[in-house]
Amino acid sequence: MREGSERRVRGRVHPDRRVQAVVEQVREAEMVQAVDRLRLIHSPREKTVVILCNIPLDLPVDERVTVAGAGGRRSSRRGPGAP
């Protein structure tokens, strides 16, 4: 978190640590690059970034919320037309 505290999240990992390292590098680098492309630093206006995943990224975080806490809801319904 930006203020220095830490929060843990659960995630899946590949059983082969070498494959997991490659997966993390590619996935996380792409996500950080996507945020960097928003030009947050040199923008004349303030921007808000919402990241919808449980993958820890090397980005400052102001707030962490659950789906329910963000105003969404999880549906137990699956299949075509499920929200």
End-to-end span in angstroms? 31 Å
Number of domains: 1
Strand content: under 5%
Mind telling me the C-alpha Rg?
Answer: 16 Å
Sheet with the most strands, sense and barrel status: none
* Global morphology: globular
Q: How much helical structure, as a percent, in the residues? A: 10-25%
- Average pLDDT level: 80
Which class of secondary structure composition applies to the elements? mainly alpha
H-E string: H
Number of helical segments?
1
Unreliable segments of 5+ consecutive residues = none
Q: Multimeric state of these chains?
A: single chain
The total beta strand count reads: 0
Question: Any overview of this molecule?
Answer:
- The chain has one helix at about 15-35.
- With about 80 residues, the chain is mainly alpha-helical.
- The chain has one domain.
- The mean pLDDT is about 80.
Lay out the secondary structure.
Elements: H1 17-36
Could you name the key traits of this structure?
single chain, mainly alpha, 1 helix, globular
Describe, in short, the structure shown:
The chain has 83 residues and is mainly alpha-helical. It contains 1 helix and no strands.
